[in-house]
Amino acid sequence: MAEQKAYWNADKETRSREEREREILGLMQKQLRYAYDHLPFYRRHYDRAGFKPEQVTSIASFTKLVPIITKQMLREDQVEHPPFGSYLGATHEDICRVHGSSGTSGQPTLYAISRNDWDYIADVMAQAFYTCGVRPGDRVQLATVFSLFMGGWGSLLGVERLGATAFPVGAGETERQIELMWRIKSTVLVTTPSYALHMLEVARSMGKDPATSPLRLGIFIGEPGSSIPGTRQALEEGWGIVVRDMATTSEMTPWGTNAECEHGQGVHVMQDEVWTEIVAKDDSNRTLPDGESGGLVYTHLRRRSQPMIRFYSGDESHMTHEPCKCGRTYPRLPMGVYGRLDDMLLIRGANVYPSQVQRSLLSVPGTGVEFKIVLEKDGPMDVVTVRVERDPAANPDDLAAFDSELIAKVKRKLKSDTNIHFEVEVLPPKTLERAISKANRVDDRRPHFHP
User: Fold this and answer.
1) pLDDT at position 451
2) 1-340 has which fold?
3) Cys bridge to 194: 97, 253, 439, 451, which one at CB 3.0-4.6 A?
4) Whole-number Å distance between alpha carbons of 139 and 128
């Protein structure tokens, strides 16, 4: 592949923090005034909070004074003002695409996107994919769901705008996916970490060595995982690729404003497109310092159709402004998005994330990549069991002894990392159901649990 430029937009990506934040403040003020004057949803929301756009005179005051919005608020507003809510920001003639949330819980939230914004999204997504290492000579296999879900469509937009070859094969029909990967010589795979791990297993069952595939790069979206060391290692070694993380959330399309560069030190946050804050879990108007973990709050700075202003995503991460060797001056999420606050499990008074359990399991030799957390009640006590598959590469002479030792190691590791006693079951490879999109790692059978 011919040598390419280092950045999609060097002036934008390498300017000083001070220069960037001067522009960001102006964009914040403009977006707030637009929302208050033209979008009834925001005017009502701000009036109830006693907030006026002119009160924002600094980035700090933006966080301190502007109330958050949530997905539930958006859903309720769409019920009251169907079909797109009173925050549409576009005429029906201007709308060129309608998408929505995946609809895994309740009624999907609909996204109406104007022609101008659709074109803008393509530009931002192209920058994100370029940051991750995609170049015009690549053939990009998009093994993503093409439906209401925006992940696949945003990926397609960015790949096409960048000038690479898009192969939007979708998710599912995994054997066919793999045959076509070799046939057209895909060089980049875009999918969820869970589905990429499933594809690994299927490729091996077909007699193929995934490490000899034509892929050179994997970009993973849709769920935490590719920033977890064990998952990353399994993907890199299994496919023989470089792994890059890229994601925010579909409400924030262009969602690719978190993108990992060639140094693999976490995702760069494109703050001049979507302003991203780490806030206290108990106070969404308090910014946390670098290194401290909290909730992610996002703001569209340029999108006009259904702009999200201080959208509380429920994702958890932490930020750093330490310089990156790539020369980009954006801050980074060093561990990507590593969990969802609403995925947090309360077990005997302790907080545990599925991603935390995954991280522990993958550090124990002999475990596979698939697992399930099962929660039950024994009287007043929570009983938590991890069902984890055995590493398919393991072929011990004494299987019972191997499993017994593995159970003991996993119990010790989980107890050390979470301070909770887990029951452990070791299962044969390929026992647990595989996901073609986002994996469901929890089966909570406790009474009065509502997923």
Assistant:
1) 35
2) Rossmann fold (3.40.50)
3) 439
4) 16
CA R_g for the chain:
22
| Cα-based distances in Å from 341 to 10, 61, 326 | 35, 25, 31
* Distance, C-alpha 20 to centroid of its chain: 25
pLDDT on residue 449? 42
User: What is the full DSSP assignment across 392-426?
Assistant: TT---SSHHHHHHHHHHHHHHHHHHHHS---EEEE
Structural element, H or E, at residue 282: none
Rounded alpha-carbon distances, angstroms, from residue 281 to 41, 286, 312: 25, 9, 11
- Considering the four listed CATH numbers 1.50.10.10, 3.40.50.170, 3.40.50.10320, 3.30.300.30, the one that applies to the domain covering 344-444 is 3.30.300.30
Give the strand pairing for 345-347 and 350-352. antiparallel
Provide the CA 183 distance to its chain's centre, in angstroms: 29
Contacts of 208 (CB under 8 A, 6+ apart): 178, 182
Domain regions of the chain by residue span: 1-340, 344-444
Q: In this structure, how many other beta carbons lie within 10 angstroms of the beta carbon of residue 410?
A: 24
Check residue 147 and give its pLDDT: 84
Token readout for 156 is 């397609």
CA-to-CA distance for 210 and 203, rounded, in angstroms?
A: 6
The residue whose two tokens read 């999420």 is 333
Which pLDDT score is estimated for 358?
Answer: 87
379 Rama class: left (phi>0) / alpha (psi -120 to 50) / beta: left
- Cis? peptide before 429, omega within 30° of 0: no
CA distances from 397 to 139, 224, 225, 446 (A): 43, 35, 32, 38
What would the two tokens of residue 192 be? 């969820």
Residue 237's pLDDT is 94
Strand blocks (E) in 222-266:
242-245, 258-260
CB 294 within 8 A of CB 316: yes
DSSP letters spanning 180-219? HHHHHT--EEEE-HHHHHHHHHHHHHTT--GGGSS--EEE
Strand 217-220 relative to strand 242-245, pairing: parallel
Residues of the chain with pLDDT under 50: 1, 103-105, 449-451
